[in-house]
Amino acid sequence: MKKLPLKKYLKTAEYAFSNYFAGENIYPFYASFKVTHKCSLKCNFCNVWMEKTPDLSKEDVFKVLDNIADSSIVVLSIEGGDPLVRKDLGEILDYAYKKPFYLFFTTNGNLLDKRPMEEYGKHIDYLHISIDEGHENLNFFNRLEEFQSYGPEICIQIVVTKDTLSAIEEKVKRVHEVGARTVVMPACHLDGTDDYYPDSRKFSNEITRLKNIYKNTITTPKGFLNNINKPHGCSTSSIIIDSDGGLFYPCRTVGKRIYNFTEESFMDFLKSHEAKQARQNMKKCDRSCGWYQYFATDAFASPFSLFSSLSPYIFKWNHS
To answer: In this predicted structure, what is the pLDDT of residue 30?
Structure first.
């Protein structure tokens, strides 16, 4: 995993303290950028493939990345749909990797055999591959060693439904055996999909149990496991950027598209009255959707919770 400039770490700490003393997550630290909504799969628990949001040109993708680089974001995940459908992906990864943030990459793996993954891997810090019943690719667990040969650290993303909760351990054990990581998350109930969301307390208890057995394998933070059992446990410490650069703020559940990353400074937007009002609206939401990206960091993103969320990635696990 690459090292970021010292000033980036110092600024991140500064933003974390600012959030803490302000009592709200003004500055986010994690972002996912859906460089396309196109996908080769149509998972039942997902609605991304249903959307018709257009993709940005490569040049406008670069504008988004420049804006992110000048912000509080310290981890960026390139996602979709499936980003592997973009033919200019190599250029996008090369450009993004040079920026002062950790670069994650998430794919359903359906196109791995048709893309130059070893070349792509040179410009990725963490490769996330979704493997579970919903993606209908459980056979990929037999290829984990192959995936590790791509170069970057791999993290297996496992989406758990109410019907697959009992089958988590065998997957985690396999990931543990090869010295990889896994992020385990519940299938939150998205608009336009059936409800596959597992019982949140049973989910939390099972993941906590497995974290104790398979040390340093599950990166799902403790904060997330606690927050999904609270009346209100989400925050704006994380954002999702659409394939046209648009941002639903404060989140995809209750937010509206009130900003676009191809336009003005994101940091200026965060300090606007409109953004502050959106954050207040988030506090009034009672949906408790359990959306991983919004629940995975403790309230106010204190310096400690920020460290807790990022440490599973920053500190490599020496498998024994």
So the answer is: 93
